[in-house]
Amino acid sequence: MKISVIIPTYNRKEQLLRCLESLKSQSRLPDEVIVSIDGSTDGTAEALAHWDSGALPLRWIEGANGGRAVVRNRAAKVARGDLLVFLDDDIRLIPEGIAMHEAHHYRFPNSLLSGATLEEEALLRTDMHRYKAYLSRLWLAPLAVYATEPMPADRVFLSVANMSVPRQVFEQLGGFDERLRDAEDYDFGVRAVRAGVPVYFNYNLVAWHDDFITCASYIRRIRQYKVAQERLCNLKPELHARNPRAYRPARGWRRLFYRLFSHPMWVQWIDREVFWIRWLPRSLRYRLYDWVIMAQAVHFPSGQTS
């Protein structure tokens, strides 16, 4: 089995180089690594030209900024491998990662596999970093049961930050929907299940995620995802009208409750780690973060968080 690793990137050359370093340390080297540069202006191509790739078979392609779905499809079209492994540019794959992707597809051919994208605890510096690491484990650990049995249609999870798919299956499904600027991986997973392609998740196949958020940046990210989910429902109501991942507005007393946490000052207090928040018990502190983030990202998203 020949393996092509595809990494889209946009103006994140430092994170990209760390991702590539993790690939140099793989117990099973990929047969090619394609970096797909999405209109970057930070000197990514020059950095790659001067980077010591060692035994890693690296090449890169450049194109106008088209978004994540476009840039991934662009690389997939020129990939030579039988198996496509998609990684984000801000992750570091554990040394056994490529071998684990390969082993899965020998055991379960013609399927999709997603690994866990987690924050490495040794690198966490702020309480928001630790909160996000806690959330990632809370969300992903229950999916560990799907390492050897396919996910049911109503529980599809697929993260293209750490995902593999046979090229033939990728082409049969039509690749990622280029009309989408976000949530293209979730849509791809739903379409796969509808087409009879099983989707698996391996919690032990870890990619460390070097995305060190603030409360403000996390709220912006959820707002973007909310817009993407709404667009999915509008574009493909037959697939996503009952999307379990779609955010729904609070009503009645719950809306009044969230309004209490809709002022931008909450975000500033959290990111500054003001003393009275810092001294709250962790369970209550994280609950407060939940309320503020949901209030300002979902229920009252018009406020400023910068």
UniProtKB/TrEMBL annotation:
Which segments constitute the Glycosyltransferase 2-like domain?
Answer: 4-116
Which SUPFAM superfamilies does the entry link to? Nucleotide-diphospho-sugar transferases (SSF53448)
List UniProt keywords, sorted A-Z: Transferase
Q: Name one GO molecular function term.
A: transferase activity
Q: Which superkingdom does the taxonomy of this entry point to? A: Bacteria
Write down the PANTHER family for this protein, in alphabetical order: GLYCOSYLTRANSFERASE, GLYCOSYLTRANSFERASE 2-LIKE DOMAIN-CONTAINING PROTEIN
Q: What is this protein called?
A: Glycosyltransferase involved in cell wall biosynthesis
